[in-house]
Amino acid sequence: MNATTDTAAIRALIERSADAWSRGDGTAYGECFTADATDVTYMGTVYHGGAEIGRGHQVLFDSFLKNTRLTLEITEIRRYGSDTAIVVARGESSKGAPKQLGKLATYTVIRDTDRQWRIAAVQKTQRKRLMEALTFAFQPTSRPAARR
Q1: What is the rounded average pLDDT of the residues 54-61?
Q2: pTM, rounded to two decimals
């Protein structure tokens, strides 16, 4: 496969995971992950493996996350060799249109043993805009170059 095709496949994987979330389909969500994946939620819960990620999220989709949709905006994809990439996305789960995309997620995606792209790890973080603004106001050189 070429880089353009792989980048499209990686985007499709992330979109497929968001679609499974929005349909409340834990099985399909878990299938987006490798068998030994790690999912660190923004609350700090750690799930291991696609099956556990799917089961755990199904319980959430049937309760706290019922009728929510996951809105994601991929901000960057960086490839490392032919079988690994890092994806950074802004996102939010919400019942309607989100007011802002207040969470960040870093995905490590790999070409799995069946040559399909899957999520090997994801770390989700709640963005603290006020704390970030205060830090940059008092320590301007701490601002990332992309935001200067």
Answers
A1: 96
A2: 0.89
